[in-house]
Amino acid sequence: MTFVFKTGFALFAAASVFALASAAKAQDSVARLPADAVLVTPQGEILDYIPESGDVQMMRDRRGRTVLVDAWGNVVATVMGSGRQREPVRRREVNRDVYTNPDYGYSDPAFTDQGFSQPGDVTGSIQDFRNAAPPNVERQELPTSLPLEDENDMAALPPEENTQPRQTLPPATQITKKSSAEITALQVFLDREGFSPGVIDGKTGSNVTKAIEAWQQATGETLDPNNTDDILERLRFTGGLPITTYTITAADAAGPYVASIPEDYAHKAALPHLSFTSTTEMLGEKFHMDETYLRELNPGVDFTIPGTIIKVINPGEMKKGKVTRIVADKYRKQVFAYDEAGTLIAAYPATIGSSDTPSPSGTVQVDRIAFDPGYTYNPKINFKQGENDQILTLQPGPNGPVGTVWIALSKPTYGIHGTPEPSKIGKTQSHGCVRLTNWDATELAKMVSVGTTVEFLD
């Protein structure tokens, strides 16, 4: 039987939104720009002209940077030094349509103490980065969950002397030698069911095993991962074959993208957005795939050319439901989501703290949910990152320290959030928070609400 699949697409892109400090207005003339100035638009592009003095005025944003603002209050460009003499440039009038963004946000005093620029306690669909007014996330002790160097899959386990009872789930059948395509089918089935295997890469591993065990716990059935015919038959009822085709659009190719994401937070803070670095990275996240696997499925393909037809994973519809209780199991490195009847409806591989910077124990609640959050680094109350000793504001984007979602917990500074490195979920340590892939964090965030219980198991 032949199946035809339609795969929807929502482009993740990042836009830089600047909140201007009115007290710091400077009525300088554009003619006073330094000779080596580079003008960078909110979309991350470099202007090849200088706007006319009558069209814009120079102001200061919260970070003390000089910005050019048009008559409608829209940021035209941020002034940055290039370190070299600018070549002769032309001037022209500002096009209002290019820079107008009716969704630019405001600062709500009720949320400024936590770094948010708009209420974050309401779930909803992911905003388009181009039209979002991103809230900031400011953690005060253990602010990020960037992977540490140790990639030992057991690195985040508690000490052996821990005697707290652990969850017992029906053990998964050992997977025998299967092809990459067969493992992919298994991973896609689990992903569609809401029991995430993490990135889909056609490989076996602990995340796949944990997903099988959670699925068995939820359904009461036993899944034979070696029975490919059974897996394919199950897929037939949940969206069809595991791999489908997708046509790269002009928007996919256009981005915006950044050339690379630096490690140093000061360098990150200088970027207008922390979006994807390439079309392949964006497509990998869109289709829950490992980027390398995406390339393997499409050898020799140029992903930057609109109209190119490629093979991608068909992850199916996002899991829906109302989650009233979350269990973060540190030992299993897995998050479990339960509905009000106590039924397990979803599970996700996770990175949960480390021996040096453990996650909290006991029970807390969800305080706030924010999509596309920015990030504030404060070295006086955060860990020391590199040589940075000043407060830094990082713009939002999937490559930000907390990814595309922040679920704040009632224990200050802790949360459940996304990650810029999905392939490392469950295999590295974090700085105390619960880290999921961006797509898993998004799915979970849309099912929880303020007050949802979060229980940490050691």
From TrEMBL:
Keywords: Cell shape, Cell wall biogenesis/degradation, Lipoprotein, Peptidoglycan synthesis, Signal, Transferase
Pathway recorded for this protein: Cell wall biogenesis; peptidoglycan biosynthesis
Listed CDD domains: YkuD_like
SUPFAM superfamilies with a match to the protein in the record: L,D-transpeptidase catalytic domain-like, PGBD-like
Domain L,D-TPase catalytic: from-to ranges: 324-457
Signal peptide: 1-26
Record has Cell wall biogenesis/degradation as a keyword: yes
TM regions (residue ranges): none
Active site: H417, C433
Biased composition (Polar residues): 161-177
Region feature (Disordered): 100-125, 151-177
PROSITE patterns: LD_TPASE
Protein name: Lipoprotein-anchoring transpeptidase ErfK/SrfK
Naturally occurring in which organism (per UniProt): Rhizobium herbae
